[in-house]
Amino acid sequence: MNKAVRDDEEQLIARSQRGDVHAFNQLVLHYQQTLYSVVFRMLGDPDTAADVTQDAFLAAFKGISSFRGGSSFRAWLLRIGSNMACDYWRRTRRHPAESLEELTAEDETHAPSMLNALATTGVEGNPEDILLNQELQALIQRGLEELTLEQRVAVVLCDIEGLSYEEVAAATQTSLGTVRSRISRGRARLRGYLQEHKELLPRRYRLTKE
Amino acid sequence: MAKQDQHLTTARLSALLDGQLSSAELAQSETHLQTCEVCRQQLAELRQTVALLRGLPRPKLPRSFVLPTAALPQHEARTEHPRAPIIPLRRHTGWPGRIATAARVISTLAAVLGIVFLLSGLFGTVIDVQRGTSGVSMTANGNANGTTTTPAGVQKPQVVTPHEGADRLTPTVTPAMGGNKQTVPPTQQSWLQSFTAFFGVDMAGTRALLGLALLVLGIVGFVVVARRV
Prior knowledge:
A: 210 residues, Arc Repressor Mutant, subunit A, 2 domains, 63% helix, B: mainly alpha, 10 helices, 72% helix, rod-shaped
């Protein structure tokens, strides 16, 4: 975000803090795609995500006086959105075993048998090269929903939305160390899930040598 | 070189992907990766996972989340309406307790004082009437006791009274000190008279008026405090 845009955002925030809905709506227009994407990836359902996103923007407008200038408004907004998504998830769904944190610990020791699901051929982590089909998207989404809420928020913010560790820490109100741990455990768990369902992965994403 | 033989942890590999390792950690990790196929594989898989996540398309917005500008003030009004009567009420009840108490005390004092003045004013007229006769009789009594010899100068306190304190009282009182029979009415009278004399009010009618005014003031003060609280 360049300086002009940041100044503009600060003005819009200041006006919003004085109760200017029009100013706040400009912020909504700027961030709605990001916030909706995060909430959608957290919950996996477009209708629910839309409702939670709308509630989050309303909550943000009502609580904008508590926003302290100088920090990341995006992180602040995403904190509200992700918290509300987590609340919704806890309210409505039986969470997969809380012991996932422990389960992921087994990834620390690399079992060679777990290594042959995903391929590195062709793509080498370049996002532009990947065009995911619907099935694969759905598989990844289901994999995300297997993560604990903390891991899911961290992975969604960092790996899907591209936030820095610092911004993720600000959005989740945790330390960098915790962010790092959640991201690595979340990625490891997701990798494990994708390996379990490797038959659903397109051939180009599979490890060629079995 | 035992450390390099150990496989890299997922946390280390994940941080490596994000460029979050210190230079020492990075150097150590790279050295290990050069010789460890298992960890290279592991790193490749993690990188692939991240790539898949980053490759996820952004979900299409189902609608705009712009807040309704027309409905929101209503909403604000709706939420503030129930608050509106509460906040002023709280301010009323928030009348500083001490001030309210002080106002009550003052009002009570004014009312009591008013009643006293009013009564003293009303009774004063009676007493004044009585003073004409009883005063004479009392001085007659005093004469009988034979403390001083004032045959004609009945109401001359400076002659009659030896005490300075009694000097402030009206002449009818002093002889009563000597008298035994009429102790009660004269002391009551003396108290009222000293009281009114202190305030410079001597006339019974004025006292009654002042009493009435104070009473009204006290009642008004009480009502105002009660309504505020």
